[in-house]
Design brief:
Helix content is 50%, strand content 9%. The chain is α/β, with parallel strands linked by helices and 364 residues long. The strands form two sheets. Strands 2-3-6-1-7 form a five-stranded parallel beta sheet, sandwiched between helices. The protein has a two-stranded antiparallel sheet with strand order 4-5. Strand 4 and strand 5 form a beta hairpin. The radius of gyration is 24 Å and the shape is globular. It comes from Crocosphaera watsonii WH 0402.
Length: 364
């Protein structure tokens, strides 16, 4: 897109950031535009008109629109998944992170984009007692998706599933797996999932399995690659708000993004509320809500569920989290390692202290 770069210079824009500011657009959107990557059609046309370019003449092929403009800021995540699959030959990828960070959206978009012959999805129930037994899931797949008769013997059914996965390119999504885990291991009632995962991790199958969870799967008998998903950056928040035609203020969006750790769910909830109650104005919304970040009931439930789960499954890690509150975040940007260890005064062994700290990092 050399024509675009030349036009930027001719128009007096000293940088992509200056152009983004002028257009009220996210810097990442402008970067994609300059480098010939797909962006929203309306943005593309507006940018070209601002630079005095005929957009129909500078594209080498028909202009593609973003298939899902609500899915933003995950180019690096997709590249990382590609690396884990293509370079490290991962068959099962565990995408883990806080609730609402965007794990399920990333997994769905990835499987949708990669041209699988078939995509199978399992969504874990929100209550442990309602989780579907893995034997039922495999039986359903064999009958309905592969037209193969399942066996009453689960081991034979798994063997038949494996034969199907050897010959077909299948993508699998297993969502919210943490409901079947305790401390990274399957709870006793659902330990047979390990047998399924061993099949899905086999080098001979053509399938790819993406697991989403709030904690890592650490079953010793299952080979898994891990990807910790972090929040979106401020450019992604800007891009999302601009697409939804909010009146944005860059410093305000940055402050909100930082306050919520880039959480994708928070971003979408804020956008909806600003549209409904604030005439699309971000600035006034933030003035009213920055003191109470969890005023939205959905956000409050999201955070509470994370704390409740940690309290239920790991008392030591939960107590450490509460004690960390003695360090005021307004005054201390980071806590030294010794400062964390001294809060574990009721955990005597040094190795166990290290394990508690690691579990807290994974649990959050």
């Amino acid at each position: 897109m050399q024509k675009v770069k030349d036009a930027l210079k001719r128009s007096g824009f000293r940088s992509q950031l200056a152009f983004a500011t002028e257009m009220g657009a996210a810097r990442d959107t402008v970067r994609k535009f300059v480098n010939g990557k797909n962006i929203d059609r309306n943005n593309f046309i507006d940018f070209c008109e601002k630079l005095g370019l005929d957009w129909q003449r500078i594209v080498d092929k028909p202009l593609e629109t973003n298939t899902d403009p609500n899915f933003v800021g995950r180019e690096n995540a997709i590249a990382t998944l590609d690396h884990l699959i293509n370079k490290k030959k991962g068959k099962i990828i565990n995408i883990y992170g806080m609730g609402g960070v965007g794990k399920t959206a990333l997994a769905k978009q990835y499987l949708k984009a990669k041209g699988f012959d078939l995509v199978l999805e399992v969504f874990m129930a929100t209550r442990t007692e309602d989780i579907t037994p893995v034997t039922f899931i495999v039986e359903e797949w064999l009958k309905n998706d592969f037209t193969v008769e399942p066996s009453q013997d689960f081991g034979i059914s798994l063997k038949r599933l494996k034969e199907q996965l050897k010959t077909r390119k299948v993508g699998l999504l297993i969502d919210n797996l943490e409901m079947a885990l305790e401390g990274g291991k399957f709870i006793e009632d659902h330990h047979q999932y390990v047998d399924l995962f061993k099949v899905l991790a086999d080098a001979d199958v053509q399938s790819l399995t993406l697991i989403t969870s709030r904690e890592r799967l650490t079953e010793s008998g299952v080979e898994v690659e891990y990807y910790p998903l972090e929040g979106l950056d401020k450019d992604a928040w800007n891009e999302y708000f601009i697409y939804h035609q909010l009146i944005i203020d860059s410093s305000t969006v940055t402050a909100m993004c930082n306050a919520y750790g880039g959480n994708a769910k928070a971003m979408t909830l804020i956008c909806s509320q600003v549209n409904l109650d604030y005439s699309k104005g971000i600035k006034q919304y933030w003035q009213d809500h920055k003191i109470d970040l969890l005023a939205n009931p959905t956000l409050k439930h999201l955070v509470n569920s994370q704390f409740d789960r940690l309290e239920k499954h790991d008392t030591d890690a939960y107590n450490l989290l509460l004690r960390l509150g003695c360090y005021r975040y307004q005054d201390i940007s980071s806590v030294p390692f010794d400062g964390v260890k001294c809060l574990l005064f009721d955990v005597v062994e040094t190795n166990e202290q290290l394990r508690v700290i690691e579990r807290l990092k994974i649990g959050l």
